[in-house]
User: What shape does this take?
Amino acid sequence: MKPSRDITRLLEIMAALREPQTGCPWDLEQSFETIAPYTVEEAYEVADAIARDDLDDLREELGDLLLQVVYHSQLAAELGAFTFGEVVEAITTKMIRRHPHVFEVARAADGTMAKGQWERIKAEEKAEKRARRLARGLTAEDSGSGFLDSVPVGMPALTRALKLQQKAAKVGFDWSEAEPILAKIEEEIGEFRQALSANDKAAQKDEFGDVLFSLANLARHLDIDPEAALQGTNTKFRSRFHFVEQALKEDGRLLEDASLDEMEALWKQAKTR
Assistant: This one.
């Protein structure tokens, strides 16, 4: 089988990998649940290539992400649920429907009107999705009928906290300014200290989560993306730690050979570079 620019070839490759008699043993063992972590990982690798401005890598990572869509579609087709073609049809239908100002005669006069149309159409789609879930016998709770249920559970926790808060704010459940949130953060830290004093591991985990949630809320009010802010700090930490490692290496030593005080002194040098 030869490579091709035609999506059909990728679908054929995936089907061959899943062929019960001649397919790949590893691929035959997979399910939606086992493949899902790879799907999330590939999405992060796409974002990483973009952050590094590496378009060659981006091309490859987009291919890996596309494979994940094909993989899940193949699994669904085997169950008789849907095919890759139906996935394509669903997204093309959605995009045409959400952009009547582009694909229909009635056009939005400006970006504000277009955004209004987008929100209205998305609301209609969510209502239709809930109705379909209920028709499949799901309960009202499982059908995603709650106001916050549209925020995906699988999001990174910090990003999901931000999305939950943004959505709740739309109906007025929000602080009016940042100062009360600072007080709330201090309150949560106090409760975390109590959990530490009590040596209550479950309470420590719970209160630590409350602190992070409150910090995400403060970031939102300050128009800071908490995920991006933490990524920036991660990058800064990695750079400074690399400086410590290189400084020790130039002295003919390994990280394991240095004391904490020595590493701290080099860390301070890294901060003042």
Summary: Residues 157-224 form a domain with the Helix Hairpins fold (CATH 1.10.287.1080).
